[in-house]
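Example (one chain per record):
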Amino acid sequence: MSDPGTTGVILNRGGVALVITANNVSDFDQQIELEVFSVPVSSIPVAKVGAAHQLFTVPPQTVVTRKFDITGFPAWEFQASTPLNLNVFATDAAGNLIAAERVLDSEAYEIAALTPMP
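Predicted structure:
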């Protein structure tokens, strides 16, 4: 994912969990800031709502996984500020990946800055 980057808004097709993998292939600790938003689906422009915000360090040569509840979100967006390789997947209640709700690192969009969260 570019630094910073976003999945863009993804329509929720039955996802209940958002799974993020962060892969640090460097020889140094890397700090990562993650944000998850619930996005209302409406013909009237409505602001996204902050649902999760984490700041943590990933040790060298390590893959970490984070999981966030997205039950009931009409749509969602994930943002991160990191040079790490990130992949984002939504899963259904049975733990199955939802193909239409996955964004690989190479498919993320670059953004100027993370959206501020209160």
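Caption: Residues 90 and 96 are 8 Å apart (CA to CA).
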